[in-house]
Specification:
The protein is mainly beta and about 80 residues long. Helix content is about 0%, strand content about 25%. The strands form two sheets. Strands 1-2 form a two-stranded antiparallel ribbon. Strands 3-4 form a two-stranded antiparallel sheet. Strand 1 and strand 2 form a beta hairpin. The relative contact order is 0.10.
């Protein structure tokens, strides 16, 4: 576990990421703040579906033969 400190830089506050994390300058992150005030940083990646051809990633519904039981549809 690494400990880092927030510092002020111009009109922003900055959290420096140690080089050992192998992040690139300019890399984007999604920041998620939890109720506990924890911050989760998720690296932004390129769209993995950007070059997919139409229908290439289609997955048919697996439950097409399922018949509703009793009053299951009443809850929908």
């Amino acid at each position: 576990m690494k400990i880092v400190k927030i510092r002020k830089e111009r009109k922003s506050i900055v959290l420096a990421i140690p080089k050992s994390f192998d992040s690139k300058e300019g890399q984007g992150f999604f920041l998620i703040e939890k109720d506990s005030k924890s911050i989760i940083m998720v690296p932004k990646i390129k769209n993995p579906f950007e070059h997919a051809k139409d229908g290439e990633l289609y997955t048919p519904d697996l439950n097409v033969d399922v018949i509703p039981f009793d009053r299951e549809l009443d809850r929908v």
